[in-house]
Amino acid sequence: MSRTFEELLAEAEEVSVAGWDFSWLDGRATEERPSWGYQQLMSDRLATVSAALDVQTGGGEVLAGAARLPPAMVATESWPPNVAKATELLHPRGAIVVADPDEPPLPFADEAFDLVTSRHPVTAWWSEIARVLRPGGTYLAQHVGHSSVFELVEFFLGPQPEEVRRARHPDDERAAAEAAGLRVVDLRFERLRTEFFDVGAVVYFLRKVIWMVPGFTVERHRDRLRELHERIERDGPFVAHSTRFLIEARKPA
Question: pTM score > 0.85 for this model?
């Protein structure tokens, strides 16, 4: 017997959204993965350098999956629950987690790192990335692209203006990286199918990815959530499309 609308909401409101682990959504939502396999690419690079920085590490889950960390490994994170979670995961690996507001400047000296990585940064502060990289150093990251999951965003917020839909476009990120003095050596973009199988999955997702629908709460958006629940019950999974791009930028030697 399927759970009621109220039961799905209550369950999704109570579960913790700390960290960057989405395993609670197993069986309730799916998302295609980019073909390039970011975590393996990152892991391979980390094994070849002596000092690296992972920016906006979340709960440290992606970095903790690397097979080998360099002798000097630092991660930054701004959200206190994630700082605690990342510390718990990464300290046993010898990595230092620094609480940082995710705004310039990065709290490190010039030319401190051979490699800077990031998975899904909210903002890439390109001038700061360039500053902390050693000559010949590399930024390797997977970014969320423009209009990601906007079918869901616009279900709650209505049609968005073009400047909002274009935010985080890979062409604009390339231009910003180059303006900071970096040379983009790889840039790949993919649009990936995402499905939500029940309204609880949507509530969990929007509680966790808080910038998608700013100010989202179950109470504030209850009417739209009920419409979404009825639509899923009638038509099947709610389908959206996430966007991702891999970017590799090098600081001239």
Answer: yes
